Amino acid sequence: MNVVITIGREHGSGGRHIGKIIAEKLGIECYDTRFITEAAKRNGINEKVFQAYNERPVNSLLYSIVMAGSALPRSAWNTTERPLHEQVFKAQFDMINELGQNPCVIVGRCADSVLDESITKCRVFIRADMPDRIKRIAETYQVSEKEAEKMILQTDKDRASYYQYHTGQRWGNSQNYDLCLNTSGMSEEDAAELILAYIAKKYH
């Protein structure tokens, strides 16, 4: 299938792992944080800055301004250049569209919105019930359930702000996706199979 699959996901829903399973079954690449390093290298921006802006709202990253002088190439040190956060997003935007020239899975990074209209894509959003998300995060990061819930709420808030800032749309709004799936009560493998069945029917 000549289609790019984008995965938006709530924190703790298993979306990243499901994306990897889908990619393995289709024999294609799955891109999440792995392409950040390459995008940083191509644009002469320190990888730490890219990581700092990784699906987080601009106003929570003020410390990156301090790093800007050493993070950017000298050609970008004047005040007429775009703000640092815009340069980071533009670099990821370009990388996403480059990767999208071939079938692949892209997790997060507003890929559902920024991919060129000429690219055939299936936009998936994955969520889960809060108790299941708390359990997953608590086990993954070895934290208490209270701390896990705090992490979930903050991460979702950051992703929503980042998405709205760069796309002008509401993160998680079903109208922005082709398929929305609640993974509670099913394994990651079953969730991947459901998504693959949908794709096979729609893009056969």
Report on the structure:
This protein is of the alpha/beta class and 204 residues long. The chain contains 9 helices and 5 strands. The chain has a 5-stranded parallel sheet, with helices on one face. It is globular, with a radius of gyration of 17 Å. Helix 1 (15-26) packs across helix 9 (188-202) and helix 7 packs across helix 8. 52% of the residues lie in helices and 12% in strands. It has helices at residues 15-26, 34-43, 47-52, 63-71, 84-99, 111-114, 130-141, 145-167, 188-202; strands at 4-9, 29-31, 104-107, 121-127, 179-182.
Number of strands: 5
Instruction: Give me the strand/helix succession.
Output: EHEHHHHEHEHHEH
Total helical elements: 9
Distance between the terminal alpha carbons, to the nearest Å?
A: 7 Å
Strand order of the largest sheet: 2-3-1-4-5
Detail the poorly predicted runs: 60-80
How would you summarize what this structure contains?
With 204 residues, the chain is α/β, with parallel strands linked by helices.
Write the layout of secondary structure elements.
Elements: E1 4-9, H1 15-26, E2 29-31, H2 34-43, H3 47-52, H4 63-71, H5 84-99, E3 104-107, H6 111-114, E4 121-127, H7 130-141, H8 145-167, E5 179-182, H9 188-202
Parallel strand pairs: 1-3, 1-4, 2-3, 4-5
Helix pairs in contact: 1-9, 2-5, 7-8
Keyword list:
12% strand, 5 strands, five-stranded parallel beta sheet, 204 residues, alpha/beta
